[in-house]
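Q: Now give one record:
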Amino acid sequence: MGSVALIKSTPVLIVDTIEPSLPFWQGRLGFSRPVEMPDEGHPRLGFVILTNGVVEVMYQTLTSLEKDMPHQAAAYHGDKTHVFIEVEDLDAVAESLDGFEIVMPRRETFYGSNEIGYREPGGHYVTFARLKR
């Protein structure tokens, strides 16, 4: 079998409302919002892409998912995603996210990583790591 040329991977985080998660990514980490779509029939976002040019995350509301892919929405039971992001400066991340919920205190791992984990306002888990190379 030959290999498949993959370009990138982007997590899609399902939430009830997107707006509470925006300060985590945009306000504190400097992500931009190049794509957004209103949630039809609601005065809020239904879908958004957030990026810093290297890392990208997408958010979609459950009501938007129900309209777009009802079978997937039916299988969704409030599941939360775990996102792992490698960074150059873990101190800068910790300073930027001061006040957000830490769910994994800063630690050194057996595989040579310095990490800290947060729960972003939508309930998903985001681990930031500085890997020793």
Q: What stands out?
A: The longest helix spans residues 22-28. The chain has a mean pLDDT of 94. Strands lie at 12-15, 32-38, 45-51, 56-61, 82-86, 102-108, 113-119, 125-131.
